[in-house]
Amino acid sequence: MEINLNKISSCQMEEAAKAAYPGECCGILLGKTAKNSGKGEIEVLETREAPNLVQGEQKSTRFEANPLFLYQVEREIEGSGLEIVGFYHSHPDCEAIPSREDTEKMVPGLIYAILSVTADGVVDIRTFTAES
Question: Residue 66 in contact with residue 51, Cβ under 8 Å?
């Protein structure tokens, strides 16, 4: 599957990760899926940052988005030609690779972007799918 992440989306995720540090940020990836290309190509065009519902010390290692926020974004993009193509979150002071919990919760066909962030800023962004 080919994943195209545009500069605006990358910048939006980086800003969210830096603002949430040392906690995790999370959000939704919006874009388009090229269903007729035969390549499984997904283009990420925008993001929506979701408030992380996890509080306290666990906020540096966990995130939880409000399902109502997801519903609101679905309504917002209805008829726009955009669709929810995945989700993103940050890993403060850790590598941009999925944890076991991340892997277990991945839904096939969606993109998962993980940002490695430190006190100095975002050091890596990687994308994953359940198939990868």
Answer: yes
CA atoms within 13 Å, Cβ hemisphere of 124: 12
Q: CA 63, CA 23: separation in Å to the nearest integer? A: 9
| Cα distance between residue 130 and residue 78, in whole Å | 25
**Per-residue pLDDT tens over the stretch 22-75:** 999 999 999 999 866 566 789 999 999 999 999 888 888 889 999 999 999 999
SS3 sequence of the chain: CCEEECHHHHHHHHHHHHHHCCCCCEEEEEEEEECCCCCCEEEEEEEEEECCCCCHHHHHCCCCCCHHHHHHHHHHHCCCCCEEEEEEEEEECCCCCCCHHHHHHCCCCCEEEEEEEECCEEEEEEEEECCC
Q: Which two tokens stand for residue 132?
A: 């990868």
Q: What's this model's pTM, rounded to 2 decimal places?
A: 0.91
Both structure tokens of 119: 């006190």
Give me the pLDDT at residue 92, please.
96
